[in-house]
Amino acid sequence: MPIYEYQAKDADKSCEYCSKVFEEIQKMSDPPLETCPKCGSPLAKLISVSSVGHSVSGLDQRAKAAGFHKLQKLGKGEYEKKY
Asked: In this structure, are 1 and 29 located in the same domain?
């Protein structure tokens, strides 16, 4: 199920929960939240950046820092260690 982000439309008239961005797990068929589940304040559904395929170089850096190795195929049965 996807994770959606919401925030209060008017931070001055909202609770601590919805005055900041919060995440809600919902089915794609579920209607978007219109009010905060805690205080009833009107909400805005936010557009967020997907992390799938986002910043491949960042993923490589994290994998390297975690101790993983990356190999590049040179030919049949031949690989070169990139890191």
From this structure: yes
pLDDT in tens, 20-46: 999 999 999 999 999 999 999 999 999
How far apart, in whole angstroms, are the C-alpha atoms of residue 4 and residue 32?
A: 9
Number of domains in the chain: 2
Domain range for 41: 1-46
CB atoms within 10 A of CB 21: 11
Give CA separation, 67 vs 55, 61, 63, 70, 78, in Å: 19, 10, 6, 10, 22
The answer to whether the pTM exceeds 0.70 is no
